[in-house]
Automatic annotation (TrEMBL):
It comes from Mesorhizobium wenxiniae. This is ArsR family transcriptional regulator. Residues 6-100 form the HTH arsR-type domain. Pfam families: HTH_20 (PF12840), Rhodanese (PF00581). GO terms for molecular function: DNA-binding transcription factor activity; thiosulfate-cyanide sulfurtransferase activity.
Length: 225
């Protein structure tokens, strides 16, 4: 039996590096620095990150040994530190592209096989809402959600879903909906959710079917009940 208390220093070091790299702004800065030495002001302009934030992120990268500096007059120039840093950045980009391709394939497969969407009917949806068995996810743009939405629905536009998955609970089934039968936003959302391990279904009728049924609606343009 392996000893769970065995300490592995190398993995601690890897975890520290991963934490340092775990910010999009730092990855952007490293990408620009990989093209050659640059001053803080240049990096601010290229990245679009505020000067104070750029300086702060650069200090994190320097402490982690990912960048080095030299002074040229009054300017401090940043360059990549020694080591296979560009290989690490390339590997991360490759992994991200691979994950995106997996999601794209899942979406395409889902759209070509409607039977795999596991649609939920309005009647079942109402019953499960009353029993508090599900979480409603409105994947339409925020302005459409504000104008009217299913009671208690969480709004995460589908193009923000990957970055905001942590806002959704794992202990309940997520039911995504959008603008109706012809709307693909909820199908895209289902593909993303299932690729990340969330139990999920799709209300095919979406907001239009709910509205025409006379059921309660939340939102500034509609009165509930």
């Amino acid at each position: 039996m392996k000893n769970a208390g065995v300490h592995h220093p190398i993995f601690d070091e890897i975890a520290d590096l991963a934490r340092t790299l775990g910010h999009a702004h730092r990855l952007v800065l490293l990408r620009h620095i990989a093209d050659g030495e640059l001053a803080v002001e240049q990096l601010t302009q290229l990245s679009g990150i505020a000067l104070a934030n750029t300086s702060q992120h650069l200090q994190h990268l320097k402490r982690a040994g990912l960048v080095q500096t030299r002074r040229e007059g009054k300017r401090v120039l940043y360059r990549l530190a020694d080591g296979p840093i560009e290989n690490v950045l390339a590997a991360l980009r490759s992994l991200a592209n691979h994950r995106r391709e997996q999601i794209r394939e899942l979406i395409n497969d889902t759209m070509s096989r409607p039977d795999r969407l596991e649609n939920i009917s309005r009647e079942e949806l109402v019953r499960r809402m009353r029993n508090d068995e599900i979480v409603l996810l409105d994947v339409r743009p925020q302005e459409e959600y504000a104008a009217g939405h299913l009671p208690g629905a969480i709004n995460i536009p589908v193009d923000e879903l990957e970055e905001r998955l942590a806002e959704l609970p794992r202990e309940k089934v997520i039911v995504a909906y959008c603008r109706g039968v012809q709307c693909v936003l909820s199908a895209d959302a289902l593909a993303i959710l299932r690729a990340r391990g969330w139990a999920s279904r799709r209300f095919e009728g979406g907001f239009p079917e709910w509205l025409t049924s006379g059921l309660d609606v939340d939102g500034m343009n509609y009165e509930s009940g």
